[in-house]
Amino acid sequence: MPDHNLPERPSPAEVQVPALPRRRRAWLWLPALAVLGAGGWWGWSHRLAEAPAPSPLAEAPAALTVAVRPVERRSLLRPVIGDGSVAAWQELVVGVETGGLRVIEAGFEPGDRVRAGQVLVRLDPSVPEALLAQAEAAVSEAEAALRIAEAEQRRAADLARSESVARATLEQRQSVTRQAEARLAAARARRDEAASRLAQTRIAAPTNGTVSRRSVLLGAVVQPGQEMFRLIRDDRLELEARVPELELGRVQPGQEVRVLHGEREVAGRVRAIFPTVEGTTRLGTVHVVLPPDAGLRAGQFARAEIGAGSAPALVVPQEAVVFRGGRAVAFVLAENSANASQRVVETGQRREGLVEVRQGLNEGERVVTQGAGFLADGDRVRVAPEPHARQAASAGR
Predict the structure, then answer these.
(1) Per-residue pLDDT, 169
(2) CATH of the domain spanning 80-88+236-310
């Protein structure tokens, strides 16, 4: 029991403060937020005032110094384009006429040059020589028989005039003489045949040329008609250019031809046009004569540009055409503009440092020549003065 009658005080833990309404608590934070916002705005505006002004060089990217040229219209040759293989003007097949003889000499290899009459192959002559000796002996025998027959005929003729022998005897002697003459002629023919077969053991070049193929080996026994060598007659080569049938009408014999083989360029001339067109490919063949110093070999593949008139075309320097993503493009710089725009172009033939533009550019437009390889679409450029145009290609971004 407490010793007094006063009411007991509640403990602090037991004292409950009545909760403020939620809306009243939110309003208590507003003054603090206002103070923080005012301080942040003052700091930001103070730093902005102290920041340096941006440099003009930072706003505009650096310009590339380039050279430009206008797109021009010029008269270009419109050649007929063809391609094909280099072949011999005439390839001669050198064969053998006799058979059953052994090869004892064949000293030439492909690529060797030969002269007309030079022996290419020599066959064993022992058998033909023996046959020739036999034929010559038969000729001698026939000549002796003819002399005897002629003497008998003269004696019979003398006796017939004196009527010492019958007329039939004279006629018989005349018949024997004619038979002897025939046997002599046959013997001489066999002798000539044997001599010809002996000569066939020496196979000679029919004309000047170069050996293109050898088909015989030492010790081989040949057969009649067997191929021995092939010769390029007079070392003359031609390009058998295949040309589309619709272009054949523009080609005439005697026209000049520009033959291209890699980096090599050769001047040729149209010799003839094959009279038919292949039914499957619809291509005709044009024979182009090549000069002796062309430096080409039979079997090589080459391209022919047959001159067939000229026509106007748009051209630009070849430096103006570059490749982006596998496509040919040029950079055009419009008047009163400092930005180069990229154009996709379709190109044609290239000649004397110029490129034909079939599509993508108009006459008079300015294209970047030197420095085009460093550009991208929309880059700022600066046109170099004419004396310094050659130095523009070395400038960087």
Answers:
(1) 80
(2) 2.40.30.170
